[in-house]
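Form 7-S
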Amino acid sequence: RRVASRLDALRPEPTRSGARCYCSGMAGKASERFVWAVDTLEVRPADRLLEVGCGHGVAVSLVCERLTTGTITAIDRSPKMIEMAMRRNRDHVEAGSAVLEAVALEDADLGDRRFDKVFAFNVAPFWQQPEAALGAVREHLARDGAVYLFWDARHSAPERARGLGNELADRLRQGGFSVDRVLVEDLRPVPAVCAIARPQGG
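Output:
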């Protein structure tokens, strides 16, 4: 029951359309947590990235600033979120460095695309159904590709952030991944964590 209540607390509130909102809030200046997340990704100019649950497209903007020949594909189950992300990243989309699609991870048709880095911030399926969500990701990871799962600790006491990161790492292991690192960053207003992993045996 304690585990279930913690999951309920972590689960984002549904929007009016029934979609879960994993956005950054304001569509203007990038929040500190997204700046930290993209710094953590250590984006290289030729990287191919996939963001799951891109919301307003804040991270897409930050990633594209670091790409030259690389690309980012960003998906979100909410057409409204993708519409806002498209407006924010119109120049990047027109330049071919960003592709945005309104689709849930489990329904995404990514064809033969392979990604060096896959990341998500506060995206519930990776917490609630890690085997299914990570299974969908695994088949599109490039050789030596990595998954970065970010979560903020808004529903945990600040001193519990490390524990939250370790629980996130457990879900990656549950999905068949080996965890490289668990990071905790003391951001404001709440800390954030990141678990970085690669497929077991990969």
